Amino acid sequence: MDVFVDLANGFANAFSLQYLLFAAIGVTIGTFVGVLPGIGPALALALLLPLTYGFDPTGALIIFAGIYYGSLYGGAITSILLNTPGEAGSVATAIDGHPMAKAGRAGPALATAVMGSFFAGIISTLGLTFLAPLVANLAKSFQATDYFALMVLAFISVTALVGASLIRGMISLFLGLFIGLIGLDFLTGQQRFTFGSPALLGGVDIVIIVIGLFAIGEALYGLAKLQFTKEEQVEFSGRIWLNKAERKRVWKPWLRGGLLGFTFGSMPTGGSEVPTFLSYNLEKRLSKHKHEFGKGAIEGVAGPEAANNASFSGVLVPLLTLGIPTSATAAIILSAFQIYNIQPGPQLFENSPDLVWTLIASLFIGNIMLLVINLPLVKLWIKILAIPKTLLYTGILVFGILGVYSISGSLVEVLLVCVIGVAGFFMRVYDFPVAPAILGAILGPMMETQLRRALSISQGDFSVFFTRPLTVGILIVAVLILVLPAVMPKVMRNRQDVDRVGAE
Fold first, then answer.
1. What are the phi and psi torsion angles at 382 (to 5°)?
2. DSSP state letter for 52
């Protein structure tokens, strides 16, 4: 019953004019951001971080949440019409969404995406409402070794599952860990990697890292890419509403995709990539129209889009209850918490109940706004695709650098964000994932704190990490996630060879 009382109080706050306006602004900006190819929620949040310093924490987080899940729907527009997924979670949508658009069915494809996002968002937010308090209560019994193991699991899962190369992912992760170590040692006060610069004594501000890697790096990469590629846009025409036969085919994929997205998003290995492709493969296996997949099956849009949107509420479970982000965008939201001196974790539901429950209530309201705003405005969002990309990326560069200067007024930090931005550009060019670097920079110092705390309690005895069953279990899962992607293809090839020899 406490959950219902807390949620009712959250709705009482969320229905204030101020927070309703913030939710509407977040959803609208998020959809706008998602529509523009190459501009994802992480980049948008990076640019907006400096602008929200004067906001109250609840209002800022409502805007950020709205941008996050609004952009997930906006990304479906570029996936369907341009075959250009803005986020990894939108890749599966493009497989059947773009063929539908080329066949003159862009309207039903886009309607499936927005309505699927709505239903999956409601399902996953209900899951967040009831699961998060339980996880928070469980996490109160966690010790330093458990938190250390969870952060190792988050590092390995994101590094192993994001990007095509494990080695590149590890290099990106260690780059982020190195950046996170810059500054003064919190125990001894010794300088680390400051190179004698007083400006680095306080470490590298997470806003600088985020804006450098996402805003500056992405904008430079986008400008360079425009010199060699030309976008193929499909004109929107015809109806937008689903007919009776289409509605019959999509409602089950919406439900299954919503459950898959929330389940995988709420794990410390969360994110949208795995559940969207699992949903696509599941719908292909269950469908009576298997021959349409890859050619414009509406189930191939409904399932992955539902999973993509539902994964957001799932990602909030480890973020709010354990303080562990499982995606680059969640890492930026975590940095927003830290800017306001709020530490997500088991005590968040007790120390800041108004913030948490107002945020959760605003997710319900924002999902309704997402449906109301986007169904009538689909043709308007499509026209936004005509904005010249050179102007767009140039504006991102300007606003990114001005945002950093507005925070500190330091030319050293402006130079630093440019250096990090160039590094982010080369990471994109050579296909190094950016998410592990962001997680390393944010979680690295926290992981170091838990490691040293555990060793201090055990007087330097490393066996302390192998005495608690929970710690050992989490570390075993981390090792499996690291090893299985390399081992499974070989096992499958060997099995196929055995089957082939047996058949002969």
1. -65, -35
2. G
